[in-house]
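TOKENISE THE FOLD
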Amino acid sequence: MVALLGILAAQEKVEFDTASIKPNASLRIGLLIDTTESGDFRAENVTLRNLIAYAWHVKEFQTIGGAKWLDSDHYDVFAKRPRDGDTSDATNRLRMRTLLADRFQLLVHSETKDLPVYVLVVAKNGPHLEPARHETSPNGIRGQTGMMTCTAVSMKDFAEWGLAPRLGNIVLDKTGLEGEFDFVVQYADDSPPKPGADPPVAPADLSLPSLASALQEQLGLKLETQKSPVEVIVVDRAEKASAN
């Protein structure tokens, strides 16, 4: 079934009070998408595809279609919520859908497709994981080039927020491991250097294993592939927004 997800129905429409969208030509790496304490939306160095993924609460690789500029043109966005409006992230995502429809003439629809995904399972010799001690702060996944440090992290969160962004695909947790764990995984980051990096991105340490091998050797986990129904957001129309 295909569901049109462009301009929201009038009775459902929610929007920001004001919004500024400006081109970002800095060529720096990294981006910021954040909600301020007062509930306003702020984004720096984002593409339209980043904003679509935010608005529909999916990963970037779950958005397909559109011209090349959806990935190459970068923007800074600041949008103020209504002062008496809801401050929740869910409502800001709906406001972003309205903003994208108004400013980028965005029209999209959703589809469910059977696509190859990764599945995280326990390797043959069992897991090498220590239960979380809950003594170290902050908890969560901290990433840097060729390393992930995980503190009090569940396998579901590790698959979704640690592995999926690095592999550029959905990763499903099928380990059957309950609870939270503390662990570090080191691997060769063989992604290509990014333009505008300052300082330049260091080359991969070829003495380290690939991410898939590191998971098996260091954590006793394994990546497999299978086909699974995946929701994707298909871009039907988009126009470049004018600066303001």
Q: What stands out?
A: Residues 3-111+233-237 form one domain. The two ends are 38 Å apart (CA to CA). Confidence is low (pLDDT under 50) at residues 1-11, 192-203.
